[in-house]
């Protein structure tokens, strides 16, 4: 593993490990911030899932679930276990968390607005780092590349087989 990945992944994961622990510890307080978002998201998730799946409406449950995902995925990213999947999971928790916690556009106080904007932009920067990590194939061909080349190889092989068959028939 490259030294940069060995250092960068744990550094990037450290924020999510701390944030996930805070989500678990302070879930009731953070739920007040998350409530406006969960009131909109929960019905959409409920509509998108089978009827047998129970989708919670309680914002405390959503905050705790986000915390658990951040800790598990943060550990995965930090240790290099499933780093691409872990990064994608962290991006999925970061977007709603940012929208719930750092609503700078609603702040009326200038200092509060600036602080919220700073946190919002920090989170967008973290999202960028996570996207890079999610797409990082560590120098190995990615799935899209392998699919394109497998298709190309299969067409070439089919053409060769077809040419051999035509040569035998004639």
Automatic annotation (TrEMBL):
InterPro entries tied to this protein: DoxX (IPR032808), DoxX-like_oxidoreductase (IPR051907)
Compartments where found: Cell membrane
Keyword hit for Cell membrane: yes
Domain of life: Bacteria
Keywords: Cell membrane, Membrane, Transmembrane, Transmembrane helix
Main location class: membrane
UniProt topology in membrane: Multi-pass membrane protein
Keyword Flavoprotein on entry: no
A Pfam family assignment: DoxX
The protein's name in its UniProt record: DoxX family protein
Recorded family membership: Belongs to the DoxX family.
């Amino acid at each position: 593993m490259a030294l940069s990945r060995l250092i960068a992944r744990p550094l990037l994961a450290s924020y999510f490990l701390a944030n996930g622990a805070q989500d678990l510890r302070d879930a009731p307080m953070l739920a007040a911030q998350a409530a406006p978002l969960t009131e909109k998201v929960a019905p959409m998730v409920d509509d998108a899932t089978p009827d047998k799946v129970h989708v919670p409406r309680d914002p405390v449950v959503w905050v705790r679930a986000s915390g658990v995902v951040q800790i598990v995925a943060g550990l995965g990213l930090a240790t290099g276990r499933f780093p691409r999947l872990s990064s994608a999971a962290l991006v999925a928790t970061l977007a709603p968390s940012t929208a719930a916690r750092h609503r700078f556009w609603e702040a009326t106080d200038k200092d509060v607005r600036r602080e919220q904007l700073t946190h919002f932009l920090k989170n967008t920067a973290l999202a960028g780092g996570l996207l890079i990590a999610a797409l990082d194939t560590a120098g190995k061909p990615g799935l899209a590349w392998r699919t394109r080349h497998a298709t190309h190889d299969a067409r070439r092989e089919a053409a060769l087989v077809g040419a051999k068959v035509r040569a035998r028939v004639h």
